[in-house]
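Mods, move this if it's the wrong board.
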Amino acid sequence: EQGLQQPFDLILMDMQMPVMNGIEATNALRLASCKSPIVALTANVMQKHRDAFAAAGGDGFLSKPIDRQALKEVLKRYLRHEKRETVT
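Not the wrong board. C-alpha cells:
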C-alpha cells in the first residue's frame, strides 16, 4: 500500500470509474486522512448524487460537459496562487 505520502492541492474525482465509483473513492480517501479538496466530475447531476458525494466528504461538484468558467472558479478557489519573482 503506497498511502498518502504527499498531499495534493486538488483532486478532480471522476464519479464513474470501473472498479470503484467516485463516492467510494472519496470515502476511502477521507478514511485515509486525506485533507485535500475533492471536486466531483460527472454527467449525473441529480441532487441525491450530490448529497451522497457531500456525505462522503466531497467539497464541490462540476457537471459534464465541463463549463470552462465553472472549472476556473473551482481552480481559483482551491489552488494556491504563489507570486513568482521574475529574473531580468
